[in-house]
## 1
Amino acid sequence: MAPQIEVPQTVEWQGKQVPVWSMSTIDYGLLLSQDPAEVEKVVKACLEEGYFYLSLQNVDGRRMLGDQQDLLKLMHRFFESPIEQKNEFGLISSHLGYEPVGSRTGAFGPGTKDGYEMLKVSRDEIQRGSPKVPSPVKNSGDLSVLENNIGSCNTICKVILSALSTGMGLNGASRFENSHRNDRPSATTLSMMHYLPEEITGTNKRGHQKHTDISSLTLLFSEQWGLQVRPPGTCGAREMGFVAPKPGCAFVHVGDSLRFASGMKFNSCIHRVVPFDPTEHRYSIAYFLRAEDDTMFQDSEGRFITAGQWHDEKFKAFTDPWQWQAMAPKSMILGGMKEDGADDPEPTEPSKVPSPVVKPTELTSVAVNA
Ligand SMILES: O=C(O)CCC(=O)C(=O)O
Ligand SMILES: [Fe+2]
């Protein structure tokens, strides 16, 4: 049979054609029953790319999609509230509380600031039944929405972890689930993000800096464009490209902790968020499943470090001014993942509104017989 060469779809952004990377779609229903072929497929996606779509369009997953729609409504109401109410407690701890726009480095690197505000709710606090959330989202209906989302996301992540353990031949205490037990303290968190339009933030506060996540697994939901990933590999042409929002699916990616726990076999995903349409408000939801604080692993520098320490060090690097970030080892922000090829150049016309050349619904990967 002739070899298959995949031609990436592209989308126009800032006056040039940028790839839209294709990726595997894993079926949550099949994973739930540990279907051997689906287990093999998810392991392959983590070993080769470090990311995949998870289809939730089945009887078990649709529940989660409904929870997520309720959360979007809550987010709209929260982010429209006055800043004094949103910032009532500030950032209580690194994985819990409110961060205003411009707290970190932005999508375009040193000297820029991020363009999003964020509310994080800790899973441990929800489990204890006493989450410290700002007053606009403190009534019992809101707390149920937060709890339902955290519960659903946690279940989904555990199903994925379990499939990965099975696929990697892990047994007993060495299975990944065993370092993600619900009753042990962790920095697992539900993060709600609102990216503001450029006319509010100005051109110096845009997007979300390039990084790998601290987490073991990240479950990401956004109906809007903006997320970019850099596929791993040795081909220099593999640049940052967009992840097309796929209806009914979450985007799942491997973070540093699971990469370390897999002995560097899994790739963690280098990603950032850019202002795809600088005039729009963008909303995204990320569930960061993190390992128990005491979990010990070897990081990309070969240091023995606990998940809690890695979280604290990397969180500090995320929030440090860019001059300090530049002095931190590169293995911190990118979790030791190597980059191939060059980033896209600094934008010259930041306010230009890009338009997709392909509509999201038309996006499919194209296979060409060579
Ligand atoms: O907003 C997004 O789509 C991604 C956010 C992200 O990468 C993060 O919070 O770590
Ligand atoms: Fe991230």
## 2
Amino acid sequence: MRLHICAVGRMRTGPERDLFDDYVLRAGRTGRALGLDPVTLQEVEDKKSGGPAAEAALLERALPQGALRIALDERGRLLSSPEFAQKIAGWRDAGRQDLAFVIGGADGIAPDLRGTADFSLSFGRMVWPHMLVRVMLAEQIYRAATILAGGPYHRS
Ligand SMILES: C[S@@+](CC[C@H](N)C(=O)[O-])C[C@H]1O[C@@H](n2cnc3c(N)ncnc32)[C@H](O)[C@@H]1O
């Protein structure tokens, strides 16, 4: 199963980029034996003038056809890390080819695009900067892979 992160804005070089790349690398290594392909990042332009509606049009184009859409949204469902791991395994076992995680820009994901999500995932009710959300998501994907592989990284 292919994992895509479709996100608004371009990540510059710096600490967030380093952390993100590290977790993506680790997730790729651990996920290989589990039928999880390396995470790919699709970035779309941050449309300061057009806002979330203009960004949604770009995100819509970046989303792989037929992908299961997971919106990152503070109003979404709260999951424990083992629950998140089981969700990923369930989608994989159901034969899903593509999972697309969608992260909005400064003003969030346009409601119309949010409405097309198959699942809405929250990292808590607080709002996090979107570049940090990428890092947190990459870490949780890596953690999920280690949980599914039975590795020692996750301790509950
Ligand atoms: C700065 S936030 C925008 C928040 C905005 N109030 C909204 O309505 O979504 C940018 C993006 O980061 C992600 N995000 C921020 N906090 C989050 C949280 N607690 N859980 C999940 N995703 C979050 C969402 O994808 C959001 O669109």
